[in-house]
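Moderator note: this is an archived Q&A kept for reference. The question asked for a predicted structure of one protein chain; the sequence and the answer are reproduced below.
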Amino acid sequence: MTIHEQMSQQQIAGLSIAYIKDGELQKAECFGLLEVGKTNRINTETIFNACSISKLVTSILVMKLVEQGIVDLDEDINQKLTSWKMPDHSYTQGKKVTLRHLLSHQAGIIDPKGSFSPLHSRWQRPSMVDLLKGTTPYCSIPIDSTFEAEQEFHYSDAGFCIVQLLIEDTTGSSFSTLMTDVIFRPLAMTNSFFSSAVPTANTASGHQKDGTLTAQRYPIYPYDAACGLWTTPSDLAKLLQEVMQALKGKGTLGLASIHELIRPQGCKEWMGLGVFLDGAGEQLEISSLGWGVGYQCMLVAYPHLGKGFVAMTNTDTGVHQMQGLLGEIYRSFIQ
């Protein structure tokens, strides 16, 4: 089946893909519509909600701050947090929670069930402090660790909310401003931002698995570091190119510690810092998935081989990416 046929069968409104080969953007392909019932088509500058791919971008920002001596991967996070503290327990006495634990989802935190929903028009945007204290509808239970760090893997949006708060407490800057200054602007990622004010001119509206619009055309997650990124595949390809260049000791950002990002962390050999790993050596594959209300996306790269792709859709198909069109794109890519 062609991509157009699969999109029709799975009721996917729009799709944008960027391919990297030999460390350069090879091509970008666009299919479908910004919104069902309208005529505006997806193009290379169409913006999508990246959802949890935000975590990889956040981790790269953290690594840059580590290199600048602003934060430390292995320091007790309570040493830098000022507006909120991770509660102490008997099992945190020997092993304190660190940024490394948070970025690799091994901080002993289990997200409360039903937490971290999109921004609701009736509720204001929560502060990270109120969210972590459990005083908002987005997370009604205080965030805490429930066992010693590095013992288990639990995918955690709350952990990245703590990362965001630590960055803001330490630098005195908003997370979104810092990301723009340190990552987006130097890499000319001009269509990338963290904001509750989504531009509507060329932003893909979210769609449900039956092909209809989501209740909010642009569902917003008010947790920037965890899932608040809006971007394009071509912009994310620039970030992947930077990772590839950094592995050669080159690049714009000077990411000397990039190897740390893509090596196994803690108790899981398939977990890096904000990115999933498969294979090893020259064949190392890194990946990040985004799945939220109205959107699904996939980022895959073989950084040592200089190749990869980013695919973004404005439809939540209701099935895991590997079971739908994005999985077909991945399998075609690795053949």
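Archived answer notes: The first strand starts at residue 14 and ends at 21.
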